[in-house]
Amino acid sequence: MVEWRMVADQPAALAAAVLAVGILLGYLVGKLNKRLLTAAGVPGAIEGTPFERTAQSLGTSTVTIVARLSSWFVYGVAVLTAIHIARLVNAQTFWLRVTSFVPQLFIAALVLIVGFVVADKAELVISERLRGVKLPEVSILPKVVKYSVLYIASLVALGQIGVNTDALIVLLAVYVFGLVFLGGLAFKDFLASGAAGVYLLLNEPYGIGDNVRIGKHEGIVQEVDVFVTHIENDEEEFIVPNSRVLEEGIVRMRN
Prior knowledge:
Elements: H1 2-8, H2 11-39, H3 42-45, H4 50-57, H5 62-85, H6 91-129, H7 141-160, H8 166-186, H9 188-203, E1 211-214, E2 217-224, E3 228-232, E4 237-241, H10 242-248, E5 251-252
Helix pairs in contact: 2-5, 5-6, 6-7, 9-10
C-alpha cells in the first residue's frame, strides 16, 4: 500500500507503468483478434480481392491490418492516458476529446477497411456470375456495385469523425435516382434479352447443333443461355441477344 502511494505521488512513474501495461495489452488484443478472424474464416472469404492482393504485396494481409488497428487503438488510449497522468494537458479537456474522438476514429478506420474489402469481394462475385453474359451493358455492373459500396462506407466513416455529411447524403440520393433512371434506360435491352431468353429456354424453338439463320447471321447453334445465343459458321462466330432473336425471327435451315 505504501509502495503504491509512492508511485501515485510520482506521475511520471505511474504514466510509464500505464504506458507499459497498455503496450502489452494492445499486443495481446491484436494477437487475439487475428486468431479470432482467422478461425472465423475471414482470410478465405476475402482471398483474391484487390484489397487483399495490395496488402499481400506490402507484406501483410487484411486480417493483420484489422488486428493491428485494434492494437493501435489500445496503444493510443494508453499513450493518451499516460499523458493525462503526467499532467501534460488539462484533464477535463483531455478526457472530453479522448472519449468523443478516439473511438469514433477507430470505428471510421474499421468501416473504411471493411468497406474496401466488401466492395472488392462484391465486384469479384458479380463479375464471376456475369462472366458468361456477353452484353456490353453488363460489364459496368461490377464497378457500379463496388463504387456504391465504397461511397456508402466513406459516408459512414466521415459521419463517425464528425464531418457534416448532409451534402453527401443529398448527392447519394441523386446518385441512386440517376442510377435507377439511367440504369433502366441502359439495361432495357438487357432485361428484354433476359425475358426473351426465358421464353426460348422454355419453348426450345431451336437447340444446340441446329443450323439456323437469325437476321443476317447464319450458323450452327453452339450455346443458348438466358441472355444470348451463340452461333458460328466456318468463318465467324456470332453472339446474338435473345431479344433480337424474337424481333428478327428464327429460320431453321434444312440439311
